[in-house]
């Protein structure tokens, strides 16, 4: 129940809500807000819906929302890091807040839709418990359709909130069980101990499809996927020709449709195709890959594998055990690279982010389950992964044009210019100076029983709404 460090997921199961909601059309829509307007480049106006209360009955008005925002900025590192220096939030009406900034803040809609930033809560009630977070169970600090009545490390219990602003919740309550083992989650549905199992590995799909009474449901295109990062600090990928050849050797259709049986979408860009700024520029071309390697002096031997000055062209593909779907992905990429003469070894590191920051660890391509536009926000990814010295720039990427474009994007309010910048960055990362790239794009997936056979996985981790119910 610590809202600043652990409670960010409360919007996923119908307890908490946000001011804006990111939807599968790739756009941000008002949620607790009725409108979000940007009348001037450095001023935003937020208008709240009328008649909303917290589950404890207190009104969700402009002062209450300002208190929630200020508490988040004071206590949450995610919120603090999301707000530009000099930004000011102020109450300008009973249901109106105004945001002013020294420079334009075009990503505010995405910030307001990000669960890790501003969950709207009763800040006064949170402050009253000090850090005795257990006292918030049953305190009705959120606005969602289901109120928490019990919570420990095994499960959360919640009951319907009768005063919910959108209408009567469809369920009397719900239980969320925290089961780390994917097979145990699947068995719970098969044994009728649960209705819905989240995050099943794709390898389980054939067995589930063959089992009566359970269903492997695929949902909407996500914004994340399996992303590759290239190590430019050492090894063959310091050669830009090898990096370009890798991109063209990967068969994105084969990975999505053959390896993962349609459970993932084919990558056509760094970004998911449902995002309005996605530039669909990916292609598979082994012939071009071979020509790039030939021109760079990587000569194919009798066995088809390449070498230069006696050194074999071989890469280390880094994966991590916490994501089992990386095993078939890495095996497929290993085979695809071999078709153009690039050798590859798969190495598994526990806690891959920490492993990649250790200079003594050898890796050439890190395979990570992450996205370049979480909650429809692109700036955080670009700042963290592409700029020199950034905390997650594991491979030492440093491109002068990208270094200029990324800060420009941060304060560029014009949608056309923003799209132009993002297209240019995608072009650089594919055609000129490759580094980060998508292997595929996630699709939501769940395993459900017959009662919930119509249930589709929620977009942007929104698993439970006030309308979630068994099928008719």
Automatic annotation (TrEMBL):
* Official protein name in the record: ABC transporter substrate-binding protein
Q: Which organism is it from?
A: Rhodobacter calidifons
Tell me the protein family, please: Belongs to the bacterial solute-binding protein 5 family.
Record-linked SUPFAM superfamilies: Periplasmic binding protein-like II
Q: Quote the subcellular location field of this record.
A: Periplasm
UniProt xrefs under InterPro entries: Peptide/Ni-bd, SBP_5, SBP_5_dom
In the UniProt record, the signal sequence range is none
Q: Where's the Solute-binding protein family domain?
A: 29-389
């Amino acid at each position: 129940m610590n809202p600043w460090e652990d409670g960010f997921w409360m919007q996923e199961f119908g307890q908490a809500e946000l001011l804006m909601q990111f939807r599968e059309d790739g756009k941000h829509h008002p949620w607790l807000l009725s409108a979000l307007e940007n009348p001037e480049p450095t001023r935003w106006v937020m208008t709240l819906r009328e008649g909303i209360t917290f589950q404890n009955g207190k009104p969700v008005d402009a002062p209450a929302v300002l208190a929630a925002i200020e508490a988040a900025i004071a206590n949450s590192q995610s919120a603090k890091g999301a707000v530009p220096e000099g930004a000011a939030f102020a109450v300008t009406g009973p249901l109106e807040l105004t945001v002013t900034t020294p420079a334009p803040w075009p990503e505010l809609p995405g910030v307001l839709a990000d669960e890790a930033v501003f969950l709207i809560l009763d800040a006064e009630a949170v402050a009253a418990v000090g850090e005795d977070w257990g006292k918030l169970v049953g305190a009705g600090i959120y606005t969602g359709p289901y109120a928490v009545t019990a919570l420990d490390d095994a499960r959360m219990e919640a009951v319907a909130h009768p005063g919910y602003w959108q209408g009567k919740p469809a369920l009397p309550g719900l239980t969320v069980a925290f089961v780390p083992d994917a097979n145990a989650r699947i068995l719970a549905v098969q044994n009728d101990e649960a209705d819905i199992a989240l995050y099943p590995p794709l390898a389980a799909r054939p067995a589930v499809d063959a089992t009566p009474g359970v269903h492997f449901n695929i949902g909407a295109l996500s914004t994340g996927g399996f992303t590759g990062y290239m190590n430019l600090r050492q090894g063959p990928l310091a050669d830009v020709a090898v990096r370009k050849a890798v991109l063209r050797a990967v068969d994105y259709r084969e990975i999505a449709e053959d390896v993962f049986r349609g459970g993932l979408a084919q990558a056509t860009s760094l970004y998911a195709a449902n995002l309005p700024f996605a530039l669909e520029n990916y292609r598979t071309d082994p012939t071009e890959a071979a020509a790039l390697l030939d021109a760079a002096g990587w000569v194919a031997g009798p066995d088809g594998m390449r070498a230069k000055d006696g050194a074999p062209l071989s890469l280390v593909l880094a994966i991590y055990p916490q994501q089992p779907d990386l095993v078939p992905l890495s095996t497929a990429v290993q085979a695809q690279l071999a078709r153009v003469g690039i050798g590859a070894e798969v190495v598994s590191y526990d806690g891959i982010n920490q492993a990649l920051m250790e200079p003594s660890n050898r890796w050439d391509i890190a395979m990570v389950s992450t996205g370049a536009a979480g909650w429809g926000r692109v700036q955080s990814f670009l700042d963290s992964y592409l700029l020199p010295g950034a905390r997650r720039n594991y491979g030492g990427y440093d491109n002068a044009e990208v270094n200029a474009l990324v800060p420009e994007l941060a304060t560029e309010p014009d949608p056309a210019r923003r799209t132009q910048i993002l297209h240019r960055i995608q072009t650089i990362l594919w055609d000129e100076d490759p580094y980060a790239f998508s292997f595929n794009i996630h699709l939501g997936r769940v395993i459900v029983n017959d009662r919930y056979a119509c249930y589709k996985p929620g977009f942007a981790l929104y698993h439970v709404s006030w309308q979630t119910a068994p099928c008719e």
